[in-house]
Design a protein that fits this description.
It contains four helices and five strands, in the order βαβαβαβαβ. The N and C termini lie far apart (30 Å). Helix 4 links the parallel strand 4 and strand 5. The longest helix is centred in the last third of the chain and has 14 residues. With 111 residues, it is α/β, with parallel strands linked by helices. The protein has one domain: Rossmann fold (3-Layer(aba) Sandwich). 42% of the residues lie in helices and 26% in strands. It is globular, with a radius of gyration of 13 Å.
Length: 111
């Protein structure tokens, strides 16, 4: 079973991710966070296989949270979601985060 935590400040997005991921027999959403700080707390306690985070969240965005995850849960894989219309802006931010971090970061862009 692949364990997943989602983090997004929009409840509808978290619900949609939970519903979609729940359709897969080998995946389980074990917790949800409303922002990056809450995501760090959850990941440090539950040690999921994957965390799926919105790029822009209050309190701490996903790029800062990804950097902090290096010391808390280095085995947790990170997927960053964004709806930025400026594809170059989102890609530039993730490239910078990857340079600043050894964490394996993936990015998915939704338009």
């Amino acid at each position: 079973m692949i364990t997943i935590v989602t983090a997004d400040d929009q409840p509808a997005i978290r619900e949609g991710l939970r519903m979609r991921l729940g359709l897969e027999a080998d995946r389980q959403v074990i917790c949800e966070a409303r922002d990056g700080k809450e995501a760090l707390d959850i990941v440090s306690r539950l040690r999921p296989d994957i965390i799926i985070m919105d790029m822009e969240m209050p309190a701490m965005d996903s790029l800062a949270a990804t950097k902090a995850l290096q010391s808390l849960a280095s085995d947790t894989q990170v997927v960053i979601l964004t709806i930025h219309a400026m594809k170059q802006h989102a890609a530039r931010r993730v490239r910078q985060a990857r340079r600043d971090s050894s964490q394996n970061t993936r990015m998915i862009l939704f338009y």
